[in-house]
Amino acid sequence: MLGDITAAGELYIVTGYTDMRKSIDGLCAIVEDQLHMDPRRSALYLFCGKRCDRVKALLWENDGFVLLYKRMEVKGRFRWPRSSQEVRQLTWQQFDWLMSGLEIEQPKAFKTP
After folding, report:
1. How many CB atoms lie within 10 A of CB 26?
2. Domain ranges of the chain
3. Do 70 and 18 form a contact (C-beta atoms < 8 A)?
4. What is d(CA 67, CA 84) in angstroms, rounded to the nearest whole number?
5. What pLDDT digit, counting tens, does each position of 72-97 carry?
């Protein structure tokens, strides 16, 4: 199904700033060259620009790439980790927090054993 992110086996957030003018080829180049990962694996890669109100997601499906773009229309920003250009693996819970405008680390949340 087109853009079904639940098909992704892993979630990765690319911390720091990403040039949001980049399209599929530019984002694939970041994944390959800077992160030394294969963009064709069953994973969802998340990118964010300086304004923190837009997110791009790169997803490989069996026959090609899907580029998803979300622009917030409500007042607020994504709480994007701004450490150096690195990649962090996320859980689905952390993804949900991030898309809800929360930090990906919630110290008061219950931890799974």
Report:
1. 14
2. 9-99
3. no
4. 23
5. 888 888 888 877 667 889 999 889 98
